[in-house]
Specification:
SH3 type barrels; six-stranded antiparallel β-sheet; alpha+beta; 22% helix; 2 helices
């Protein structure tokens, strides 16, 4: 069965995670405290600075990253809500889910980054910006 034939849903968990997944046509019995998910992908909102301001970029990453399993069982009592995925989210999910088995788990980046200290002038300019932000934040109604 392909993911096109399955229901694509977004689940909001009580820990705040948003997960997009397919629901199998054969779910566990109604009285079971567990629910099955196929190829769950966590929705990560990544803020991105654009010329027009901040916008959210949405990334889909393998939710159960350290297992080869494509079907995951979770407790129903950890779910806040389940909603239908938008057409755009369905397309993204189907595209990423098609390569689910080859998705790599996140890796640690051990590169060392060179720390640089701001010059006194740069530090003063940043502090001035933060002070302006605090002033405008207090006056917004």
């Amino acid at each position: 069965m392909t993911t096109q034939e399955l229901e694509i849903k977004i689940i909001k968990l009580i820990n705040g995670d948003d997960v997009v997944c397919a629901f199998p046509t054969k779910q566990l019995p109604e009285k079971s405290p567990l629910m099955r998910l196929i190829k769950p992908l966590q929705i990560k909102y990544v803020p991105q600075l654009t010329p027009d301001g901040f916008k959210d970029y949405i990334a889909l990453i393998k939710w159960a990253a350290y297992t080869p399993d494509t079907m995951v069982t979770i407790p129903k009592d950890k779910i806040m809500t389940i909603v239908n995925a938008s057409d755009e989210m369905k397309k993204s999910y189907i595209h990423i889910a098609s390569t689910y088995d080859s998705l790599k788990p996140p890796t640690r980046d051990d590169r060392k980054y060179k720390q640089e200290k701001f010059s006194e002038q740069e530090n003063d300019e940043l502090n001035e910006l933060f002070d302006e932000f605090r002033d405008t934040k207090d006056t917004i109604h």
